[in-house]
Amino acid sequence: MFVNRIEELNYLEKLHKKQDARFVIMYGRRRIGKTELLRQFSKNKKHLFFSSDLSSEQEQLKQFSEKIFQLTRESFLQTQPFSSWEALLRYIFDHLIPKIPLVIIDEFPYLCISNPALPSILQKIWDEKAKESNIFLILCGSYMSFMEKEILGSKSPLFGRRTGQVALNPLSFEDLKFFFPDYSEEDRMLAYTVLGGTPAYLQRFNDKKTIEQNVKEEILNKNGFLFSEPRFLLIEELHEPSTYFSILRAIAFGRTRLNEIVLETGISERHKVNKYLSVLRELHIVRREIPITEDKPHKSRKGIYLLNDPFFRFWFRYILPNMSYLEEGDFNYVWQEKIKPSLDSFTGFVFEDICLQRIKNLNRKNMLPFKASNIGRWWNNEEEIDIVAYDEKQSFIFGECKWRNKKVGLNELNELERKANNFFYAGQKYFILFSKSGFNEKLNNLSKQRKDILLFDQ
């Protein structure tokens, strides 16, 4: 199933119509849908699509030569594959591009592992030949830190050559309706809590089955596709997985401040934890959040660390700590005793993220009371507000997200107003409440009388 990615497809189509040399870098985490996006883009176009792997340089050159032979039927390639990347790339520019200008290399970092000089070789040939070519070259990769440092970074030989880049992010909660049309809104929320927005994970669930059935079959079952997925992905990226796993587990259990992570993991030296967190941030596994109103984000001491992906958060919260039960096949016990009792509260935090997505989407569509320049969370040592948005004119939106089996009423609005009035000296103030279970009659009636109150069910 191919869902959304309209913005990215439109960008690539716009570039495809041009006739000069174009060079795009695409990157994103594994399973995020990069290859499928490129296949959708190229399917009705003449193109060369090469997917690299971890085989030797000689084997990669042989496979790439075979791919070129399928397109050109050059007889010499049957008996004599290209012996170097320079020879192969020169052939592409001199002989292939005039007929087939679109060249896509998937998992480009694998080629660089077999020959670290490849970016320099490509840069040399690009500088020589690109000006007189109509090549559309797309390099794609899953190793986030490698793509950002070695390909996009200022010290990369390819720096300054690209036409643009596409950083592919997970799908939004709104996109889950395409995967699960038969699920209720609440079930889609639970599916997003468990899987996040990674297409390959979403495809594993079947909306003809309950959330419980899907979780048991695909995640808790040791033979399920998702049972060891985070472990496999992280072992590929990290040199000391056990230490990183301890840090990720601590964050998944709500230890989000640096000193809390230090205490939870037992890593005595604070600077070491900082180093590990920096690596996880480079890999886009962890993000650092600071209150939205902080003037100097990089210097703020109020930062907290969160797992970027809901599925990783779910896995480190429920799967890793219960691995001994699951290895024995006791997944009914894990669901009933470990997951089910706390799943609702666990969903509450993800619900905040979804509400933030909705506010940002409304802001893009100019559907908020004003155009916000900053949207995020806010907290200090005493209080926190789930959503704060504001503009240069000091107009503010304050929001709370309530995932519970009870209608939200005037008490919640009054509490939100109290926090806003105590900590913000703003101009115009607006109040937004999101609720899983709707709103009571008094609050609904008040929202009809006051234009500064906005209510959203789920």
TrEMBL record:
<dbReference type="InterPro" id="IPR004256">
    <property type="entry name" value="DUF234"/>
</dbReference>
<dbReference type="InterPro" id="IPR011579">
    <property type="entry name" value="ATPase_dom"/>
</dbReference>
<protein>
    <recommendedName>
        <fullName>ATPase</fullName>
    </recommendedName>
</protein>
<dbReference type="InterPro" id="IPR027417">
    <property type="entry name" value="P-loop_NTPase"/>
</dbReference>
<dbReference type="InterPro" id="IPR036390">
    <property type="entry name" value="WH_DNA-bd_sf"/>
</dbReference>
<feature type="domain" description="DUF234">
    <location>
        <begin position="315"/>
        <end position="406"/>
    </location>
</feature>
<dbReference type="InterPro" id="IPR011335">
    <property type="entry name" value="Restrct_endonuc-II-like"/>
</dbReference>
<dbReference type="Pfam" id="PF01637">
    <property type="entry name" value="ATPase_2"/>
</dbReference>
<dbReference type="Pfam" id="PF03008">
    <property type="entry name" value="DUF234"/>
</dbReference>
<feature type="domain" description="ATPase">
    <location>
        <begin position="2"/>
        <end position="204"/>
    </location>
</feature>
<dbReference type="GO" id="GO:0005524">
    <property type="term" value="F:ATP binding"/>
</dbReference>
